[in-house]
Design brief:
alpha+beta; 105 residues; globular; six-stranded antiparallel beta barrel
Amino acid sequence: MALKDKEIFVGELTTVGRKTGAPRTVELRFVYTDGKFYASSARVAGKHWCQNMLKNPAVEITAAGRRYHCNARQVTDEGLRKRILTLRDSPPLMDRVVFEIAPEN
């Protein structure tokens, strides 16, 4: 099953624990658009997967029966952040933090 542009789906994100160095997997809702994955959170504080990605951006996503090796970054471009949140929710929850997770080539 191939991912489609602007698809919203539930997949698995595996990060490296910032304290333990061990793999940590969480199920999240993603937006897939322009060849990249996007995840959002109400906050970074207290969200281990967010804190882990900020410390070590090398992550894996399992989606549509495939595993993708990726690099993550927090979205700081306000236009992109709003676009992703608008795709993700109706009505959009504009106070959320967004992470871009780009597959390695």
